[in-house]
Specification:
Blueprint (H helix, E strand, L loop, with lengths): L2 H18 L4 H28 L1
Length: 53
């Protein structure tokens, strides 16, 4: 499965979950922004850990 297909599958699954829970676009956007910030922090922390090894 290519990256593009993988991302589309994830997007489709996310959409289904959001639709089932009647989540508005704005709420979803805020949640995704929050998750991407958390991911960013985790990645930076991992990079720092790797550099100190």
């Amino acid at each position: 499965m290519s990256k593009r297909e993988e991302l589309k599958k994830i997007g489709d699954e996310l959409y289904k979950v959001l639709a089932q829970n009647n989540v508005t676009f704005e709420q979803a956007k805020v949640t995704l922004d929050y998750l991407s910030i958390k991911l960013d922090c985790e990645m930076k922390r991992t990079m720092v850990s790797l550099k100190t090894l």
